[in-house]
Write a structure and sequence with these properties.
CATH class of the largest domain: Alpha Beta
Helix content: 25-40%
Number of strands: 17
CATH superfamily of the largest domain: Dihydrodipicolinate Reductase, domain 2
Radius of gyration: 21 Å
Length: 383
Amino acid sequence: MERGAEWGSFVGKLRKSMTFEQSPGSVRWGVLGAAVIARKFWQAVRASGCSSIAAVASRDPARAQAYIDQCHSRFPVAELPQVYLDYQSLIEAPGIDAIYVPLPTGLRQSWVIEAARHGKHVLCEKPCAISNVEMQAMIDACHRSGVQFMDNVMFMHSTRTEALRNQLHVEKRIGAVHRVATQFSFRGDSSFFQENIRNQATMEPWGCLGDLGWYCIRICLLAMNDELPIGVRGRILQSKESGSPPSEFSGELYFSGGRSASMYCSFINQHQQWVHVSGTEGNMWIDDFVLPWFGNRTRIRERCPSFNESGFDFNYECHGQDHWFDEYGNGHPTAQEVQLVRKFVALTKKPDAYWPEIARETQCVMQALWDSAMTNADVSMSG
């Protein structure tokens, strides 16, 4: 079978494996808080065809009702969620199967543990916790109760990401992976730095490292087949003021066998969301790995260049191909956030330990990078 036909066959099988039984309302969600990201979650749940938002809790009932009204006006649902005046009441409510936790990082641990204690599956925003100890406590609570824990990293559930994993580690299309480089950044305006919670050390102590670096760390781990680094070096390049969370951060991850990865995240530089994977026989590039470009297709660029010298000719030749996937960037049943909801719903019937473990690994790498930045020294990791 030729390479192109082989790739097409794989994509066909992958799409078939990502088809879920459409049974509206099979999982009833409770949402803690009315964060901006929760609007995207409403849309994803509605498009999934296999679950519904049944309840929203907020310490400000007017804010919860405004969230429901805004979402329903744009994406109407058959049954409006019930408003709860506190998180505990929602968690204890009968008929709620899963809890979505978009609360600030500083508040997540206790509510994740409480949800698990009441037998609710948990989808948690990232970064998940303010320390490795908190992260482990959350995972242990979910394990004891036999419920699924997953962090809300949407790109992990796209058709393209699964294809990338297969290309790198099964087909080995670019040979052995030796180097990864990635950047996730956006330019915050003055109001962002003055008002946004991501700049408040008590609620979001990790700053850009947690908000953006979490994605960079995750794609590095995926490119290295989920292997933990043996050591890291991190640097806070900039904070807006003394004591505030980092607004610009860079890091190096060192893996066994001389392999390495670099990451950069920032609230200062203009939008970039790219990853470049270098192998012994080629390289792969995705320039929108977190949130795909607006449109109805996603792409992986594969390049296997060659250098040919002949007499006076020194030719650097570009060889390779672009691989395209029929999935929308957002807001569509094929989009990655909808696939996440469908995957999570399937896991409520049979939890998978992979998802809490990869979240734990991401947290551990983030903590090590932070410790390195605080001590101005490399930090070894034992796994």
